[in-house]
From TrEMBL:
PROSITE patterns: PROKAR_LIPOPROTEIN
Native species: Belliella aquatica
Name listed for the protein in its UniProt record: Peptidase MA superfamily
Length: 394
């Protein structure tokens, strides 16, 4: 959660950089440049001495990767450097895109400059490992450097090299078990728990039924033991921004878990909630209300927030919404959950569904909540505090 704050600071920094010093478009020399002189790159990519670009295949793949980094990889498009099969299967085919490019790639890649560390043959494929790090950072930012290290693959497709995600390569030999509409996929070292798997499928069905959601579509659920192993499936050898133990890709129907369990109710909710550009306070709130968060149930999270809020009488709802207060006790998620509970108490399933229709528009969030819960806007802060403090235990 600390990373959120860091991202906001970094965003200011990137914008600041841009204003002070318009990002240059010149081509700078890179190591081994003599070998790679056919590319005119906007984003500068360094190559470590370990990468032997005198070998033709290595040189071709390095060029492919550098061209990809120069092709606005933050934008979903029919990118010619990616393999056709994955582009056919997934609209958002580069699984590292969302976490890596939390800023436009042109800005990010000039600040956290890519350097290819290794490019090695693994079976039939070639693995490309790249570090994204910044130079000359202020001491307060250097702790957050590097941004990440990626590892993805190059494969041959009709005699041309194309990029490929690590996920299908890493999980090629993993075991698969289908329970209901969930395809559980896990390494041989993981002992499959059928009871929990059934509980997971039942949970998705039960929430769908209780809230009259449209039928949910099946999804692939990859189980790993920790955040780093999860990251590898998203093409990260090391990642920082967005480091997590659970991530769902709604459109791709893929869920990744880093907690080593078949049952991950919070993340299931994100995969079964009807697709809608709703406000994250409501989306995360509903997932926390029905599925808990951070290993805690809704009630435990609510009690923790209430006890903290009791001791901080000056805190307002906006401090939570703008993430100025309460990250350590997940105040944002839990406040959303408490609002879902309040809506349920007032108007049952129908009112919760109306809450779930609140769009992702910061300016109108409070107005919409107040309208639904029939509160005057000037009373909203008191209402929020009162609802939270119902869970106090001290
Ligand atoms: Zn969530």
């Amino acid at each position: 959660m600390k990373t959120h704050l860091f991202i906001m600071i970094l965003f200011a920094l990137l914008i600041g950089c841009q204003n002070k010093n318009p990002l240059s478009l010149e081509n700078k020399n890179i190591n081994n440049k003599a070998q790679i002189d056919s590319i005119s790159e906007n984003v500068e990519v360094e190559i470590h001495a370990r990468v032997d670009t005198s070998k033709n295949k290595i040189k071709e793949i390095a060029i492919l990767w550098i061209e990809y980094l120069n092709s606005n990889p933050d934008i979903v498009s029919d990118n010619k450097f990616w393999n056709t099969e994955e582009k056919r299967l997934y609209n958002d085919f580069d699984f590292s895109r969302q976490l890596l490019y939390q800023f436009p790639s042109e800005q990010l890649l000039k600040y956290y400059k890519p350097k290819i560390l290794s490019l090695e043959k693994e079976g039939e494929n070639y693995a490309i490992r790249t570090i994204f790090s910044a130079e000359d950072q202020e001491p307060q930012y250097s702790k957050s450097n590097p941004w990440c290290i990626t590892k993805l693959y190059a494969v041959k497709e009709e005699n041309e090299w194309k990029l490929k995600n690590a996920l299908p390569i890493i999980t090629e030999d993993w075991n698969k078990e289908k329970v209901g509409k969930i395809n559980f996929i896990f390494p041989a070292s993981h002992k499959f728990d059928r009871v929990l798997a059934n509980k997971a499928n039942d949970f998705c069905n039960q929430i769908t039924k209780e809230f009259n959601f449209q039928e949910w579509e099946q999804f692939d659920f990859y189980i790993t033991q920790n955040g780093d192993d999860l990251g590898k499936l998203l093409n990260f050898d090391f990642f920082f921004a967005g480091y997590t133990t659970g991530i769902g890709m709604y459109e791709n129907r893929i869920l990744l878990s880093g907690i080593g369990s078949e049952f991950y109710p919070h993340e299931f909710i994100h995969l079964i909630l009807p697709k809608f550009d709703r406000h994250p306070l409501i989306e995360e709130g509903f997932a926390t209300w029905k599925g808990g968060q951070g290993g805690k149930s809704f009630e435990e999270s609510a009690e923790r927030l209430a006890n903290e809020l009791t001791q901080n009488s000056e805190v307002k709802f906006l401090d939570v919404l703008e993430k100025k207060w309460g990250w350590q006790n997940a105040a944002f998620y839990t406040s959303g959950a408490i609002l879902c509970q309040a809506a349920y108490n007032k108007g049952g399933v129908d009112l919760v569904n109306s809450l779930l229709q609140i769009e992702n528009n910061e300016d109108q969030l409070i107005e919409h909540i107040c309208k639904l819960l029939e509160i005057r806007e000037e009373d909203f802060d008191d209402f929020w505090r009162e609802e939270v403090l119902k869970f106090t235990s001290i």
